[in-house]
Amino acid sequence: MEQEQTGQAFYSQAKLYDRLFPGNEAAVAYYRAAAGSHGERVLELGCGTGHKLIPIAADGHRCVGLDFSPQMLAEARRKADERGVAVEWVQGDMGAFDLDGVFDFVFITANSLLHLHETEALVSCFQSVRRHLAPGGRFIFDVFNPSVRLLAEADGVRRTREAFADPARGAIRVDVAETYDSAAQVTRGIWSFSTESEPDFFTAPVDVRSIFPQELPLLLSRGGLRLIERFGDFAGRPFGADSSLQVCVCESA
Ligand SMILES: C[S@@+](CC[C@H](N)C(=O)[O-])C[C@H]1O[C@@H](n2cnc3c(N)ncnc32)[C@H](O)[C@@H]1O
User: The whole model's pTM is what?
Assistant: First the structure.
């Protein structure tokens, strides 16, 4: 798979990623509760460093985490070992995967799904999920709700988006320059990390697909899945025009 498609370079800096995105506790609570309701065997695709999966495993579920990035998986393994939590970590592509057994609950969070850009890759991912869902199992994922206003603001100009403190380097500034490819429905970004003394010490592309609300159920149905419910946030508010998220609850069709 192409580097630009997966953000492979970006995710090679797993510790930096965890500092930049220290975690969304509402998402952790939501996915823990969902795992609690839907069963014992849990699979996360694009699990990263295990921010959601490690707490779910600590609740007593049998967990498998699949990710493309060896560095993210190594950090996930280190954190799980540190907490004394057992998770099976698998390096693989969520676009097409074949694991042993089936799962009661499969999830993809934090826009990880949007690293698949081609429609066929999304459908293939959903088909793989369908093959791994136990009877009565649930598949839940969250992706952002594309705002045409925000997409139109992607003008290629580099702007500071984030700032955080890193124990090794000190204060880090993150600048992002993005353009939007409306034919591909992909936002193409360059993320640059700088300190006062080391400008651009790390630069990597990050490209993310938009999935528009009306195409989403069609993609799912081509993958053999059915959208049961869609929420606009992790508190369970109804999905609507002003929602920033699409939290999608699915089952086998
Ligand atoms: C935004 S991070 C989210 C990580 C984690 N789910 C979380 O909530 O913190 C996206 C993750 O998806 C992974 N990823 C990207 N493309 C992938 C693919 N095709 N197959 C599997 N994992 C992929 C990246 O390596 C990265 O760890």
Answer: 0.96
